[in-house]
Design goal:
About 35% of the residues lie in helices and about 30% in strands. The protein contains seven helices and eight strands, in the order ββααβββααβαββαα.
Amino acid sequence: MTQSRVLEGEFVNLRPLQVADAELTFRWRHAQRAKFLNAGAATLEQQAAWIGGRPVSEYNFIIELKNGHPVGMLSLTSIDATSRHGEPGRFLIGDEEAAKGVPVAVEAMKLLYELAFDQLGLVRVFGIVAANNHLMLKWHKYLGMKEEGRLRNHLCLAGQFMDGIFVGLLVDEYRKITVPRMKALITLARPPLVQINSTRK
């Protein structure tokens, strides 16, 4: 089973994925928004079995608003304690309507990166993004990830083969580029009075 600690943010929390989330995540994984993820479980029973079978070396989370409403999912996997790297992934905003006006994506990634770099002491995170997932590539690059290579016909999504773009982020890039940009985006999401008070501190 997965790790069991809640990561708390200002707008969202990351709580550990549970077998009880099978129906919710199964629905999310079969929605159009999940078209760039690898194929998921074919049945609800398979989804529950997949969740229950996650190794303790993985960190699999449900993204929740502060009122407890679940809006997405996110993971940190392939952790190598010797080489000190890991792979953020399985990132999906499942309830886009509930997430409107809230910096869900950026704060969820911020919490996951804090886990990876500040708590686990990783020096690098990496991932593979479908070449035609332009918005996700743009997002990762804005947050400091570098394009490191192209894996030809690496992914088969919805029966179509496509290239995978290999991206990576080092710990010094995280501290210099990612953290300031994430904090700026989260600040913009606060009410104006809170923004003013936070800049005075």
